[in-house]
Write a structure and sequence with these properties.
single chain, Penicillin binding protein transpeptidase fold, Beta-lactamase, 3-stranded mixed beta sheet, 16 strands, 42% helix
Length: 705
Amino acid sequence: MAQFDAALAEFDLAAGTGAGTTTPLGGNGGFGAPPPPPPPPAPPVRSGRPRWLRWTIRLVAAGIILLVLAIAWLALTAPLSKSLQPPLPPSITLLSAEGTPIAQRGANIGKPVDATKLPKHVTQAFLAVEDRRFYSHWGIDPRGILRAMVHNTMSGGVREGGSTITQQLAKNAFLDSDRTAARKLREVMIAFWLEAWLTKDEILSRYLSNVYFGDNAYGLSAASQHYFSRKPQDLTTAQAAMLAGLVKAPSRLAPTGNLKGARERQAVVVSTMKAAGFLTASEARAVQPAKLRVAKGDDLPSGTYFADWVIPAARDRAGGVGTDLRVTTTLESRIQRAAERAVRRAGLRQTQVALVAMHPDGRVIAMVGGKNYKASPFNRAVQARRQPGSTFKLFVYLAALRSGLSPDSPVQDEPLTIGDWSPKNSDGRYLGTIPLTRAFARSSNVASARLTQEVGVRNVIRAARDLGISTPIPNEATIALGTANVSLLELTAAYAAIAAGEAPVRPHGLKDEEQTSWFERLRNSSRPLGRRELEGMRELLAASIRGTGHQANLPIEAFGKTGTTQDSRDALFVGYAGDIVTGVWLGNDDNTPNPGLAGGGLPARIWRDFMTEALGVPLPPPPPEVNEDVEETTDNSLDAAGDALDEAGMTIDQARDTIEDQVQGMGLNLRFDRDGGIQVERGGGDRRGPPPPREPDARRFEEEE
């Protein structure tokens, strides 16, 4: 028993806390109490900064480092002195399609201006239309960007920009014209850079000193002197508004080439100045359209009508800063020389002339805008808007063919009245029911008016729009006779659509012209014309060149249409043969009448003269000379009679007695048939007898426009 107690005591010692202590026995049967639970772990020691604060500090540090690097990059690549330099190449050299230089242009750079020394209405015109919150934002204008995005989305394309004046200065002075996100990001960075180091007035001064105003003028000083022959400090509100309006599209709105567009843009600027509070309502109403007073500069010897037309597009393609630029155009030197020779050989005196030739795809290969470029650089092929006369009937008959008619369909060549308008044929002759081919070939006015009434004016306008006519067309039946003004360039391009078989054809002067975006490519894409309507129009044009346009006929297949406006103020011939489409216009700059001028006369002969050389087509040999005096005299008299009809614009009924009297004295009888054909017989029979029968395919068509 004593041994058992000793073993139990040893067990109690072994079951203790291990600290050399024993637990007294209690009331639990002699066993010791359980050990106490271990103490809880100590909580981790927390740092004095929250986690989000640490990340914020890291981001700020990284931003500071990037900012320092950006400032260093801007200091090296975008020095502030560069914002005073206009972004242009020293010169642009235009090359012909063969690679031969044809023109060279340098830039007209104005002296820097100080915005603080300009009249308030001058700077306010630019602020109102370009950046109304210029003095309150910090380089970019979020409200302006949002507004532009909304407007562009609603209009389905890029119609408005959100760039501030500071961004425009950054783009003009330091960047190219690429439309990429990377360039836009650089533009924003440089705008912040300019805002940080320059005052608002300094930014505005540098912007006005290098912005492009069209017509090769850079800077406000150059533009004010070029367009108005005065200093910027002397500009009127109207003149300042016009210049401010040019900045949006300087090449297109330059008033020397598009005065109407520039004045319309001027009105927009005046309206924005009123809305911004810069002008009162009465002051805005008092602003009149600005009148140009273009300063005469030193004309380059290589200056041409074609160069003036294509230079703006060439400069736009140039983009940003560069050195000498060489741009290949579509002009073909041999064809251009042929056009100039054809115009010179016409022997024009006071009457002006224009000629434009292109390939069916729209590549312009020759252009003559007047008789003498040095005497008058106004380009009548591009800038003039004149009535096209019967050449507009192309769209009337195209609408008729689209409605289901064919060249053989009948049409009434009889007088009619549409509202208070009663069109008449120029010679007073009406042939009753005739096929469309005959009506188009003899250029019947009443037939064209009747077709317009039947198919609808809107469908005629739609046909003109489909073929590329962009100028305003009144919604009235008189357009059937060509009362809507168009340019010769657009009219020729419309005929090129028939030659190409697709429309519209966009005339262009730069080789391998590129569209800037998918939207532009989609908007300007051409669509094939319907096969039936295309074949029908070609049949009509072929008949016309054998009718009223017979003086333009070639020994190869040719197509064309004459046009003569009221009182012979304008005379045109437009047509194509081979792979060349050509339009010729004659008239006076002051729109005064030209007695005896007709589209089937001199314009048709200029067209034929040019086309024979351009296409290398030999004309048929002249008829053999006749030794008999009577025959010689007869031929000369008949030629004179033909000239009287074609050039003097006399009708057959009016000229019949005069011509018969001239020929009667030669011992000949002159007879007219119902179709206007002329029969000459020897002998002295009854000059008023019935006309001899004629074969249908031998008839001739008289010019009635």
